[in-house]
Amino acid sequence: MSKSEMYLSERELVAKGWSSDVLRAAIRSGKLNGVFQGTSFIVREDHLQEWADLQLPKGRPTGRTAAAPAPAPGAGRIPAPGGSAKTAWNQAVADHVAAGLSRDKAVAAVDRKHPGLREQMLREVNRR
């Protein structure tokens, strides 16, 4: 398989810093050539790069790291040791809602992006 035929899964793209919601929207709108497989999707790497190049402001450096969009709302935010999982969960959900997602979709997105945070928050809440 040549590099131009290399496919990236949703999981791989999210691990590289891409927003799953942004990519899904681009695929659905026809702006990005991708294929949905069940509840996930795949995108050919060269198609992703072409789409990303169109999304970048002029004059911005190119390359793998430059092609990745800004992190999604709440991405990477997990409670610091001794911090509140409930606060981190609520803030991440609020960030996604502020970015335009419904609360249901925001909860699902946060749960996908921060595996284990929901369970940690529930354990914290149920201890009280």
Name the assembly state.
single chain
Order of helix and strand elements from N to C terminus: EHHEEHHHHH
CATH topology of the largest domain: Multidrug-efflux Transporter Regulator, Chain: A, Domain 2
The count of helical stretches stands at 7
| Main structural class | mainly alpha
Strand content: 5-15%
On the 0-100 scale, what is the average pLDDT? Answer: 76
Give the overall shape: elongated
Helix content: 40-55%
What's the total count of β strands?
A: 3
- Sheet of most strands: 3 strands, antiparallel
Distance between the termini: 55 Å
CATH class of the largest domain: Mainly Alpha
Radius of gyration: 17 Å
- Placed side by side, the strands forming the largest sheet appear as 1-3-2
Structure description:
With 128 residues, the chain is mainly alpha-helical. The protein is built from 7 helices and 3 strands, in the order βααββααααα. The termini are far apart. Strand 2 and strand 3 form a beta hairpin. It has a 3-stranded antiparallel beta sheet. The radius of gyration is 17 Å and the shape is elongated.
